[in-house]
Specification:
By secondary structure, the protein is mainly beta. It has no helices and eight strands.
């Protein structure tokens, strides 16, 4: 059995005991929550790669619905997430405009 979590259905993230609302894009279905390699860069220069120095190699990012600021960190800092089916109404602040990727 798997506890599969659909990232596009993540609506809240618990970090250090505080719940953050995750903003969704204006299509109403796509969460700003994402997982990827956790790295620090300066321009195109890699300063610290994921997994180096005992740091978790996988990180998260999402746009906080309250502040509209991007939050990011190591996956290990997330205590829990809440999900909701896209058809379920979850009150949110102004939806984000999805940027086109070339």
């Amino acid at each position: 059995m798997s506890l599969a979590i659909e990232v596009d259905e993540v609506v809240k993230v618990n970090i250090s005991g505080k719940w953050y609302d995750v903003n969704h894009y204006d299509d109403g279905r796509t969460s700003s929550f994402a997982l990827d390699s956790y790295e620090f860069i300066n321009g195109s220069l890699l300063l610290h790669g994921g997994g180096e120095g005992g740091m978790c190699a996988t990180g998260f990012t999402f746009v906080d619905a309250e502040t509209n600021l991007t939050m990011a960190g190591p996956l290990t800092s997330i205590i829990a997430v809440m999900t909701a089916d896209p058809e379920v109404y979850v009150p949110r602040v102004t939806p984000l405009k999805k940027q086109k990727v070339n």
